[in-house]
Every structure is written in structure tokens, then in C-alpha cells.
Amino acid sequence: MTTAMHILTRTDLADVELTPAEAIALVEEGYRAFAHGVSACPVKLMMPVPAAERDAVAYSMLGYDGWLDQVGFKTSYRQGSESAEKYYTTISLYDDTTGRPFALMDCQRIGATRTPATTAIIAKLCARPGATSALMIGTGIQGRNTLPYLLTALPGLERLRLFGTHPDGIAESLRVMRRWFPDREIELVGDVPAAVAESDIVVVASGRAAHPRVRTDGLPPGGLLISVASKGIESGALGQADYVIATSSGQLGVTGARLAGHGGFAGVDAELPEVVAGRIPGRRADTERVFVFSSGMIITDIPVAHALATRAVAAGRGQRVELWT
């Protein structure tokens, strides 16, 4: 048998169907497998590119999904922080049952799926009981699916609001909501601090923030603040919270150190996989202000990538390339 890998481009994956409910279930299973000790996920490796005249950073992640028997390698490179024009990310999958490669894929669609799925899981487990309002700040690739995913996980949400500065991102966010929930409306807001103060759930995924940086103590009592690798969060936000959760405390130390502020930070109260597994609560009291640091973990990329690749290959998409001949 020859050893070949399926090469799947962004176009190959663009219209492969995966509903919000399916994506949330896949990501939740990824966290649960890790919590049960059958998966492995070393801390993300980050390297600023040492060129004084450029703003660039490279990431790498390695992981194993023990329920799917898939090993994944993910790489990301970004030059510049102002736009996604020079941002390239890939994931490769290897089948640990057969010992053979499976797929090499553009990872934009995977990130745009697993990130809002993680946000939805956090909201389901960490929002105060009876939460009715959600605010999304940011309209980049990883934020445009967030509000319909939140509504899928928490159908009791009544008020959905959005702050963004890029017309294309705003239009795409509204289009995605219409696709999954055609009868629901999104309210656009301009005053971020005022909207934060009125929202049970606040998700911040803005880059170079064109808004006042969000403070945890600006939430209403019982509010939930979710940072998705955002520069739009105030330094020291961790210390302002009553309860702190991270998808990975190790990755918080790598990519979220500034959130501790000048006074330092004692540590997280819980990691999300343990909350998903039901071992640690998502909050201790209805009135607590909860801060969650959401950093991508490849154990959530792998199940989403595997599902998309399996469906794409079954539909005859992509190329089969024998790299090792």
C-alpha cells in the first residue's frame, strides 16, 4: 500500500457542512477526552520572528486525540497584527491506528469553527443561570460565528449585540446569523463600556482594539468575560475577576501574561477541560464576575479537522499526494 496524504485547500473545505451543534459536540468531546487522560496536548510554542523592521510571530502545536486515534500538527505564521492578509495556518493529521498520514489542510475553517464552539461551551458552563444577553466584540475570522454558536448552546439568550469596525466583518457576522437563525436579530452597538455593563456574557476577540479596553470589573454582577486571544482586554483583568478559568493555564503563561497586570497573578481557579468533565464548577456563585482565557488547543482542532477532512474526502475534494515516493 502506498503512503499518501490528502491535500485539502481552503476552497475544498469552504462549503463542507458542519452545523453549530455538531461543531460544539466535537469540541466538547475533544476537551472531555483530554480530561479523561486519553489525549495529549503539550503547551503551544510561540516564537516572535527576530526582525526589527517587521511585526511577525510563529506558532506551533502538537497533540493526540485518543478517542479518534489521530495525531495532529498545527502551524501558524502571521506577519503584522493589523489584518489577516498575511496569516497562514495549516494542520496535518496522522492516523495512529494505521500509522499512516491522513490529511494536510488549510486551518482557517477549522479555527473559525472550533473557536466559537469553545466560546459556546464556556458560556454554557460558566454563564450565570438565566443569562439572557450576549455581546460580541470583534468581527474577525474567528469571531463571525460566535453569536449563532452562543445561541445554539444557550437558546434562552434574548438580546444579541455586536461591536465591530470593519464593514465586511460586520456584514459577514449578520449573514452567518441569518443562515442559522433567520428569525433572530443582532443589535449593533457603539458604546462598548455601556454595552459591557448591560451584558451577561461578553466575548472579546478584537485585535488592535478600536474601543476602550474591556475590564472585568466593568461587567454586571454575575457577568462572564471571555477573552479570545484579544488585545481588547485591559491588563490586570485577571486580578479583577472573582473566578478565573483558562482553557490551558500553561498557554495563559505563554500568550496571556499581560492580563496579570503589574501586580502579578496567583493562578487560575480551573481549567476548562476539568469543567467540561464536571469535576470543577464553571462558577461558584451567581453573582461572581468570571473571567475565562480562551487559547486554542489542538485537541479541539483535531476533531473538527478530522470531521471536515473525512467529509471532504468522501465528496471527492482535494488531491491525493504521495510525498514519500
Describe the structure in your own words:
- With 325 residues, the chain is α/β, with parallel strands linked by helices.
- It has two domains: 5-110 and 299-315, ornithine cyclodeaminase, domain 1, CATH 3.30.1780; 118-297, Rossmann fold (3-Layer(aba) Sandwich), CATH 3.40.50.
- Helices cover 30% and strands 24% of the residues.
- It is built from nine helices and 15 strands.
- It has helices spanning 10-14, 20-35, 108-126, 146-153, 167-180, 192-197, 249-255, 272-276, 298-314, and strands at residues 5-8, 45-48, 56-65, 70-79, 87-95, 100-106, 133-137, 159-163, 187-188, 201-204, 224-228, 243-246, 270-271, 290-294, 319-321.
- The strands form two sheets. It has an eight-stranded parallel sheet with strand order 9-8-7-10-11-14-12-13, sandwiched between helices. A seven-stranded mixed sheet has the order 2-3-4-5-6-1-15.
- Strand 8, helix 5 and strand 9 (187-188) form a beta-alpha-beta unit.
- Helix 2 (20-35) crosses helix 9, helix 3 packs parallel to helix 4 (146-153) and helix 3 (108-126) crosses helix 9.
- It is globular and about 60 Å long.
- The N and C termini lie close together (12 Å).
- The model has no long low-confidence stretch (mean pLDDT 91).
Features of the shown structure:
Rossmann fold, 2 domains, globular, 325 residues, ornithine cyclodeaminase, domain 1, 9 helices, single chain, eight-stranded parallel β-sheet, alpha/beta, seven-stranded mixed β-sheet
Structural class, by secondary structure, is: alpha/beta
Tally of helical segments: 9
Count of discrete structural domains? 2
List segments where confidence is low: pLDDT < 50 over at least 5 consecutive residues: none
In whole angstroms, the N-to-C terminal distance is 12 Å
- Supply the CATH superfamily name of the largest domain: NAD(P)-binding Rossmann-like Domain
Q: Indicate the percent of residues in helices.
A: 25-40%
Spatial arrangement of strands, main beta sheet: 9-8-7-10-11-14-12-13
